[in-house]
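Please decode residue identities from the backbone states below.
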């Protein structure tokens, strides 16, 4: 089995997916409306850029979307600021 050479776009997309996951985790505690939305946009960009990390991009998109929903529920229940 031969190894496929990595493209630069795939490498950048992998880092963007990881950044989106980190941003999603932060969004649960701080500013879910802003940070989770940014995480969703970053993961969508990563999904468009990559071919080899497509599954990782989809996972980061699902996590970012769940972080948005859960973060908004937490903000509403605790009467915290949304932005």
């Amino acid at each position: 089995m031969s190894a496929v050479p990595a493209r630069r776009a795939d490498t950048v997309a992998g880092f963007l997916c990881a950044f989106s996951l980190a941003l999603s985790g932060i969004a649960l505690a701080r500013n879910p409306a802003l940070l989770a939305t940014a995480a969703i946009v970053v993961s969508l960009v990563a999904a468009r850029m990559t071919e080899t990390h497509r599954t990782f991009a989809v996972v980061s998109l699902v996590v970012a979307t769940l972080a948005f929903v859960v973060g908004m529920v937490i903000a509403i229940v605790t009467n915290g600021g949304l932005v």
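Observation: The chain has one domain: 8-77.
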